[in-house]
Amino acid sequence: MIQVTGELRVSNDAFDDPSEIRRRMDQEGYLFFKGLQDKDKLMSLRKDMLTVMMEGGWLVAGTDPVDGIADITKQCTEGDVAYTDVYRHVQAVESFHQSGHWPEVVSMIEKIADGPVLPHPQKITRLWFPKYTDHTTPIHQDFVHFQGSFDTYTCWAPVGDCPTELGPLALVPGSHKVDKVLDHHFSLGAGSLAILEEDLGDQWLSNDFEAGDTLIFHSLTAHQALPNLSEDRVRVSLDNRYQAFGIPIAEQMLTPHLSNFADFDWEDVYANWESDELKYYWKQYDLEVSAKIETWGRIGFEEAMALTRDGDTNARHHLERMVKRDPEGEQSVSAAKLLGV
Ligand SMILES: O=C(O)CCC(=O)C(=O)O
Ligand SMILES: [Fe+2]
Fold this sequence. Notes:
This protein is of the alpha+beta class. The chain is built from ten helices and twelve strands. The protein has helices at 18-28, 39-55, 81-91, 94-99, 103-113, 143-146, 266-270, 295-309, 313-325, 330-339, and strands spanning 30-33, 117-119, 125-128, 152-158, 169-171, 185-186, 193-194, 214-218, 223-225, 235-244, 249-250, 289-290. Strands 1, 2, 3, 4, 8 and 10 form a six-stranded antiparallel β-sheet that branches. The protein has a two-stranded antiparallel sheet with strand order 5-9. Helix 7 links the parallel strand 11 (249-250) and strand 12 (289-290). The longest helix is centred in the N-terminal third of the chain and has 17 residues, at 39-55. It is globular. It starts with 17 loop residues before the first helix and ends with a helix. The site of fe (ii) ion has 3 residues, from loops.
């Protein structure tokens, strides 16, 4: 379990100084801004997203969806069929996709990248149940999942206030300077891959986030989420990715998030949108698309198989979930054999 040793450096003082912004990203691998995004817009987005979660049965009936009071009997996470059943409808919220294009975010990342940037088509939100801490996002570098180019930036922001007990992100400043992908191993939690804590320095930064506070970091910066220790509140956050034009983008970033886990596509996402402006917006660009690298996913799977053979209950849970989600898949077939199901 990591220990947070300090707070993220607030970079609002460098807001209008792109070369200082780039210097800090180079040195520290992240930038943290107070109030970069408009609180009212985020609260309106929160309402849109949590209303869908209420309809999906995840929130306590009769409460105000905006309060995000979870029915903890519904606990589930990425990889669970029950999660994708509701997630796909949150994924279809038009304002959620628009938020990835808000000019306050895009223009800041353009300062970092020193030129125009492409918001990745794949927009990501995390809907994290309270007291489900075995499934907290483990330590990782984003490159193992999002690939394409190292010069890809993640923008993480809670949709609403996110005090430490609700589980904001924590990161190791300067960890991107290794300039390579570190070893990742099987883990529960988003992405199912983790860097060992001892492979990193012991400086971990995090703090309370208010709605609007925004953390932008490099694809090699090691980070994890803190556990959602709240009594009953769901944690809702955005983590979208951006890159300069003229460098490769990985093919999986052109698909809706978690559509690899369930049967939905852009047409399902777009079904009830009012505007056509953002539909397939990336197709107007001549993008260099790189094939998904399967290496890390395969390592995680083989480790989960070996751990399950040794009686590890987390690994068994992971494989059982995979078999339930996609019984015909190649890995599921091997897993089912091992599990005897
Ligand atoms: O929000 C989370 O728990 C995971 C987010 C994350 O890893 C990211 O933004 O890259
Ligand atoms: Fe990440």
